[in-house]
Fold:
Amino acid sequence: MRYVIVICSATFFLIWDGIYNQGRYLDTTVREITRIVRYITSLV
Structure:
């Protein structure tokens, strides 16, 4: 049941972000994750 709530919450957030914010928060999150991964892989 816990996983269902998490999945529904994530889905609701993605739909809300896409409709009302044109995907602004998702875009920012993806850019930050990409930047962090590049930083970590450049250290190795």
Remarks:
- The mean pLDDT is 92.
- The chain is about 90% helix and 0% strand.
- The helical segments are 2-20, 24-43.
- The longest helix spans residues 24-43.
